[in-house]
């Protein structure tokens, strides 16, 4: 420890003349800029600059990548994306695949977030109890989190494809093979299942940590009052776990809207556009199609950003409301 | 003094080395391969370097996907190799550099590559030389002959229609319990051959790409074949967007009687199917308008991003010479796009009997290619038609939209893409 501290001290002492000079030139109140400067520079290059570039692309047209060669298009890209004759009929939209991808993303987010919260909570509650082989089961549920999304998708593809393991099982039992990934309803179902299977362990872990932080004496008091298990869950566990549940909700929501990698490998967004989500639409429009429509992709990503911001505001409001309610009680 | 002269000598030596290295700049070549094309190219490069002391050609072998997805972005950003092997020839034409000033004999190029040089030109009336077609390809069907023999059903003749082929393949599939009769590669290029055969003219009177009843007939027929189980749903229905999927994997596993792929797959068929079953290439089936496949190929093109146009021109001029073209075609089992080499004929010593026969079928099949097919292949925005075809036809196959809606949407997507590309 002392050797480490000495080395650290020596390292920082090397910079002392620089800091002294900085303090002399900038004054002691502004010396902080010298420390945050390098980070600010990196963030500017890799975060702020792409945001500005995205804005430039969203308001320009053509297929050129260089901004100087792109003609100004005003709101044309947004008009192309948002124009529909009848907003209740996706087919009537000028860029119907964009709307389908939005619809799919919303549908996926609602279903997946609800199921993910439910299953993570149930799993965490079970794994928090003194069950046989608890360590093993905790490992089993967390293991998929360690896998790369591409690996997860390939494993499931191997199980679900026409000649996959599941169909081999069905055929062996004398049943007809199923179009697990070729039927749009089944494909959507499996995308949700795979996503939950792959990420549930992480959220379970967060909830498990929350459960273990709940003081034991609260449960002992409830036991002395002969409170029923459901009442304990509803009145003690869930309210005390709420901060963790909100964290999990926010994380699951963000992940759901960002879904791309697993789905892309598993279904390619198909069949048709059944599992095409908004991020894949942006990728396809801007990069995968041979005529790269960067403007359209940038406009779509701006719309996504606005949607995410709105969602974040709602979440902030909800969590603030939750906090306020807690204080009132 | 002695030390000073030593330093001077070293400095002069370094300067001379620098001069030598600037005399012949290194060039980078991006190459993808379906079979062994880059390996053969590497051998030809060694020969070029031996004949041109000081020349250095660096070959980067990359997956096809890299050429399709990353090269255009690199080029748009002003980066990229000096030369690339591309299959999407017209669409990248604005990135090519004219090497005419650096080739020894312009007439040789015009005489031997005259029919395909326009594919690389960006504008009408352009006379530049931007590269050459290294392989001529043609889309066409392959058939599992063993399954036909097992089902005791004769192969339809050379002028058989798509309906006759579908009917025969269906009977074979039923008799042999094969999962499906047919499949076409998931590609708008593959789809275009039958579409032209069914009467699609592709271009209107003004020369603009347009959809007509022929194209609609092809879409309708293809979707119907998926719905009645003639087509294996996995290939087109197994993915979203316009991503490519080929049929050879399913074919080699014996899950299909007939596939529509192309001549570039011959090597792979020979290698991967081996003696598992007998396969044959058959002439493109007919529709009411033609019996056409789609021409295509891959070209070596000189790219604007190069800082060494002279070296690029010299190297491509070497690669385009008859000896190199003949060797490349012979060793890669491909159809040469060089008129002189094609006329003399190419020996394919590494090709087995099935591959030899298939090469013969495809070579003679080039005569039946419809003019509309050539025109579409040379059209620089042909992807604007091909990619939406894949996306929208798949939507119709899986029941998201109807055939009529699919055709309307292909037209709208195409118009939008062309409009943006022309800005």
Automatic annotation (TrEMBL), chain B:
Leader peptide range in chain numbering: 1-25
Subcellular compartments: Periplasm
GO cellular component: periplasmic space
Primary location group: periplasm
SUPFAM superfamilies: Periplasmic binding protein-like II
Gene3D superfamilies: Periplasmic binding protein-like II
Record keywords, A-Z: Signal
Protein origin, superkingdom: Bacteria
Family membership noted in the UniProt record: Belongs to the bacterial solute-binding protein 1 family.
Protein name as annotated: ABC transporter substrate-binding protein
Annotated organism of origin: Rhodoferax koreensis
Taxon lineage: Bacteria, Pseudomonadati, Pseudomonadota, Betaproteobacteria, Burkholderiales
